[in-house]
Design goal:
The protein is built from 5 helices and no strands. The protein has one domain (3-166). By secondary structure, it is mainly α. The chain is globular and about 55 Å long.
Length: 167
């Protein structure tokens, strides 16, 4: 297996871990709201999920920089210097910054959740659609609208699950 294949595999694994963990975290949070009590086992599962998410982010960042080094070494400036690639890297930076802000409780949890899951799915989508060129402004507009939509959906789901618990 050559370096490029290893980088692709790492990138896919990092993305899968991140998207899966972000999705599972939201499902787990909704489940805890539905149950109405905070079970220590469920809290442990959520902590493990966040660790998986961090590992996914770390692998994604390492492989992303690996791609930059690889492309620079072989003299290929195609995708590595495209606006779409740099937009993807920027969104990965938002994932990391959002995680720090959530950890420090400097951002409301509802917005942090919406930003996290939207960012992970945007990174996944941009990776899958890497051969299709999009204008950066289009990506950013759709991304920001998706964050607002996810915030709205999560707020409705959380209210619904919290209401079910109180009945």
């Amino acid at each position: 297996m050559d370096i490029y294949a290893i980088l692709v595999l790492m990138h896919i694994i990092g993305t899968v871990l991140g998207v899966g963990a972000a999705t599972f975290a939201e499902i787990n949070i909704l489940h805890q709201l539905h149950e109405g009590n905070k079970d220590p086992d469920e809290s442990l599962i959520l902590q493990i999920t966040y660790n998986v998410l961090r590992i996914g982010l770390f692998i994604l960042v390492i492989s992303g920089f690996g791609f930059l080094i690889y492309y620079n070494t072989i003299g290929f400036q195609g995708y590595a210097f495209s606006a779409q690639f740099w937009t993807k890297l920027f969104i990965i930076g938002i994932i990391a910054a959002n995680a720090v802000l959530l950890h420090l409780r400097l951002i409301p949890f509802a917005w942090g959740s919406a930003i996290a899951i939207t960012s992970w799915y945007t990174v996944l989508t941009l990776g899958v659609l890497r051969d299709i060129e999009f204008a950066v402004i289009d990506i950013v507009i759709v991304y920001l609208l998706a964050i607002v939509l996810m915030h709205y959906i999560f707020s409705k789901l959380r209210k619904r699950f919290a209401t079910v618990t109180q009945e």
